[in-house]
From TrEMBL:
InterPro entries: MetI-like (IPR000515), MetI-like_sf (IPR035906). It comes from Leucobacter iarius. This is Iron ABC transporter permease. It comes from the Bacteria. The keyword Transmembrane applies. Keywords: Cell inner membrane, Cell membrane, Membrane, Transmembrane, Transmembrane helix, Transport. Belongs to the binding-protein-dependent transport system permease family. It is found in: Cell inner membrane; Cell membrane.
């Protein structure tokens, strides 16, 4: 063997070793972050609930499962999730058809606007629906305040977008010729839908339903604000048990129940997503609007006007109304509530101003989004690989599933667990609870799954033969990564950044445990202020919710504008 051949062989071996080391690090960094700041706090909280005087004690399981309220809360959780999923599907499928199968001017802008409801902070949406159905609201006479119907409507407010994007993105790629052939053979629109279209989009419908059920079952802010104790779900019950009663044993049992439920949903969702990816034919199509499309267009219009715009308009109107000094207590148009954002009213229960909380929220959310983007990019790069080895392929599936775990655990459990464990994490003599560093960490964990699901479809869409061809031409793994994967990843980075920033800005569950009196975030401040109806503090909460909602909507509209052709995978 010649010297040059040996030198080339050593170079190839060195490049392969560096490639293996790089991919190992790319997988290890997110897993280490997840282990320290997610698994350790959650498992520690659960262990605390099952430990008595330093010994394992499982007596809490039969005790908690034997309480009637436990099963009442579980039943309410399942009922809210099932009804929210059903309503989201009924309203989301017509939206998917109009936005992804019809061709009309302004379609891209309308798609971007439909994304906004999903990322609005739960506190904002809760206050908005309270402005519609609560005391003094335009629909207060219906007597629906604090009812299951209002909770389900608020859940659908978020999740219609999930259905529209998941089903619509799949629908737009299907071959239209089977439908055209059915129509040519004399089948009416209804028969074409039931016999041709519905079986084709069934994988996407099932995938969307599983995700929406997951989001509804783990809702915290909506149920806390609109449902109260009478409509508690597992998430709010964990919060009540930990905050009000310090009953860690019962909270730990409920956390395990919730984790088992959500783990099952995540497994089903992953299988349905793979089936959806295998079924898609990648034949983009769009058709002109016809008279037969009027019902779908009407449903979308009603959804936008009544479900999305009405609560936001009621919130805005409420923020512009204030009490007069007259004896009748009548309200008048005023900007005083917005002035109170900078100069707190006398009855304000918070330290500092709402404007200070907004500045704190923006800074923390920017840091959290940066962490989520960096980790999410590494996860997407690793999870998009398609190794020939079955062992590696199965390992990547487990890796992808592990990153989704924060979706399956209560944000309340995460926040309280961080408080329990971060006084001396891993034996390091540093109490992280005395600073605000845990808040962006918790928010990044919440945003990470959304970032991954946004970036991953772009990388999975790359033809493996492109990478193989580059490798055959002598490009090493890192060069293949830099010339093929990273340029495409950058196309969806804007959308991922928008989702991460919006999700972090509105995070409420875990943050409510981690904030300090002098560094409160805006969602936490709004939640404190809305408990004072009839006072200046309540009007200030409405104004703060409007500002937070407007900022979040602006972030997502900019992200949609920068996203190129990327499409989020919910």
């Amino acid at each position: 063997m010649s010297r040059s051949t040996r030198r080339a062989g050593r170079a190839v071996g060195t490049g392969r070793a560096w490639g293996i080391a790089a991919w190992t690090a790319a997988a290890a960094i997110p897993l280490a972050f997840l282990a320290v700041f997610f698994l350790l706090p959650v498992l520690s909280l659960i262990a605390t609930g099952f430990t008595t005087e330093g010994r394992f004690d499982a007596s809490g399981i039969p005790a908690v499962l034997g309480e009637p309220r436990t099963w009442s809360v579980v039943g309410q959780t399942l009922a809210q999730a099932a009804l929210g999923t059903l309503l989201s599907l009924v309203l989301g499928v017509p939206a998917a058809f109009v936005l992804y199968r019809l061709r009309f001017r302004g379609r891209a802008a309308l798609r971007g606007l439909m994304t906004v409801p999903f990322v609005l902070p739960t506190v904002v949406v809760g206050v908005a629906f309270e402005s519609v159905f609560g005391e003094g609201g335009p629909l207060a006479a219906l007597g629906l305040d604090r009812t299951l119907l209002v909770v389900v409507l608020a859940l659908a407010f978020f999740n219609v977008t999930v259905v529209a994007r998941t089903v619509g993105g799949f629908w737009s790629q299907l071959d239209p010729r089977p439908e055209q052939a059915a129509r040519m053979l004399g089948a009416g629109p209804a028969r074409v839908w039931w016999t041709v279209t519905l079986p084709q989009i069934a994988p996407a419908l099932a995938s969307a339903a599983s995700l929406v059920f997951l989001f509804c079952a783990t809702s915290f802010g909506i149920v806390l604000i609109l449902g109260g104790r009478s409509l508690s779900n597992v998430e709010t019950e964990i919060y009540r048990l930990t905050v009000q009663f310090l009953d860690l044993r019962s909270a730990a049992v409920l956390s395990l129940l919730q984790f088992a439920l959500v783990a099952a949903v995540l497994v089903v969702s992953a299988r349905l997503r793979r089936r959806r990816e295998q079924t898609v034919s990648l034949r983009p199509t769009a058709e002109r609007i016809r008279r037969s499309h009027a019902p779908a267009i009407a449903v979308l219009a009603a959804t936008v006007l009544l479900l999305h715009l009405l609560p936001m308009i009621a919130l805005l109107v409420g923020s512009l109304r204030g009490r007069t000094d007259g004896a009748d207590g009548a309200a008048e148009w005023t900007l005083q509530n917005y002035t109170n954002l900078f100069v707190p009213p006398a009855d304000s229960p918070i330290d500092g101003s709402v404007a200070d909380a907004l500045a704190t929220s923006l800074g923390i959310a920017a840091l959290a989004a940066t962490i989520a983007l960096l980790l999410g990019g590494l996860v997407a790069l690793v999870a998009s690989r398609r190794p020939r080895s079955r062992v590696l392929a199965r390992g990547i599936e487990w890796f992808d599933g592990a990153i989704m775990l924060p979706l399956g655990v209560s944000a309340v459990t995460l926040g309280f667990g961080l408080l329990l464990t971060m006084n001396r994490p891993l034996g390091i003599g540093l109490d992280l609870r005395t600073s605000t560093v845990l808040i962006p960490i918790a928010q990044a964990l919440v945003a990470l799954p959304i970032v991954v699901r946004t970036l991953l479809p772009v990388l999975r869409g790359i033809d493996p033969r492109q990478r193989d061809a580059a490798a055959m031409l002598g490009a090493g793994p890192l060069r293949v990564l830099g010339t093929i994967d990273l340029p495409l990843l950058g196309r969806s980075a804007g959308l991922a950044a928008g989702f991460a920033l919006a999700a972090s800005l509105g995070e409420f569950g875990a943050t409510s445990f981690l904030v300090r009196p002098d560094t409160q975030t805006l969602p936490v401040v709004i939640a404190q202020l809305i408990g004072r109806q009839g006072s200046d503090s309540y009007g200030t909460a409405l104004a703060g919710a409007v500002v937070l909602g407007a900022i979040t909507a602006g972030i997502m509209l900019l992200a949609e504008r920068w996203r190129g052709e990327a499409a989020a995978e919910w």
